[in-house]
Amino acid sequence: MLVDSHCHLDDADFADEGVIEIVNRAKAAGVGHFLTICTRIVEFDKILATANQSPLIHCTVGTHPHHAEEESELNVTCDEIISYTKEPKVVGIGETGLDYHYNHSPPEKQQKVFATHIEAGLATDLPLIIHTREADDDTIRLIRDTGKGKSRGVMHCFSGDVKFAQASLDLGYYISFSGIITFKKADDIREAVKYAPIERILVETDAPWLAPMPHRGKRNEPSFVTLTAQMVAQLKGISVDEVAEKTTENFFRLFSKIKREAA
Fold first, then answer.
1. Nearest-angstrom CA–CA distance, 165 and 196
2. pLDDT of residue 261
3. How far is residue 225's CA from residue 3's CA, in Å, rounded to a whole number?
4. Interhelix angle for 187-195 vs 162-170, to 10°?
5. How far is 234 from 194, CA to CA, in rounded Å?
6. Could you report the per-residue pLDDT of 27-85, keeping only the tens digit for each?
7. Angle of helix 162-170 relative to helix 136-147, nearest 10 degrees?
8. Beta-bridge mates of residue 96
9. What is the rounded distance in angstroms from the CA atom of residue 132 to the CA atom of residue 144?
10. Nearest to 33 by CA among 203, 180, 214, 178
């Protein structure tokens, strides 16, 4: 069994088919669990409603760095985030982090929101789902300083190099690879796949975005996580079955709030 450790099942691109149809197609492909991700806390109810459609779906609560300057997100307190985690379906905090590529929100506001999420992760002992782009140094610094060496989580949709992979692993974080590793110009990321131990790797789609080859440019969906797993297997020189076994074990170890026997 594989797990899609990061997808956005509430997205409008899935509205016509519906979540259950998407989940059933993924199940037929060997995907047995799904983590649907919150990007705006103000929309949390929609995320939770999506997760409640199937026992195979869990969810998170958090603010994507793109939305950090929005008043409804910027002023959310640590205690407010903690209150959402009391829902049984909420198993992680994020996605949160820093994005200096698009800078849709000013860096200082991104950092403020990120620090609040790190504090909530510490208070709840829930893992952080971190989005970071062109912000490696500040991401590591905030995790070290605010996280006090105790925060845990995953670098989602990893797009860095071996140096950033090493820094992330040194912090105790997991690394999640998406369909980007199948793209022609993703050599640095593929080197990071080779470098990272399989015991610290997750796989994801980030659906409906970033469909792997040969579906690049089309809508992504959780069933396509099998293609990412195949590339991980090829790069690591191991079987797809081993990738599925190890990455699934890693997922349930990190997201330990989920009772695997009920998943």
1. 7
2. 62
3. 8
4. 40
5. 10
6. 999 999 999 999 999 999 999 999 999 999 999 999 999 999 999 999 999 999 999 99
7. 0
8. 130
9. 15
10. 203
259 pLDDT tier (thresholds 50, 70, 90)? confident
Print the SS3 string covering 201-241.
EEECCCCCCCCCCCCCCCCCCHHHHHHHHHHHHHHHCCCHH
d(CA 61, CA 41): 6
CA distance 157 to 161: 12
- Residue 48: phi and psi, rounded to 5, are -65, -40
Structure tokens at 38: 């919150």
Helix or strand or coil: residue 246? helix
Q: Which of 216, 207, 206 is nearest to 185 (CA)?
A: 216
To which H or E segment does residue 125 belong?
none
Secondary structure (3-state) at 4: strand
DSSP string, 13-69: GGTTT-HHHHHHHHHHTTEEEEEE--S-GGGHHHHHHHHTT-TTEEEEE---GGGTT
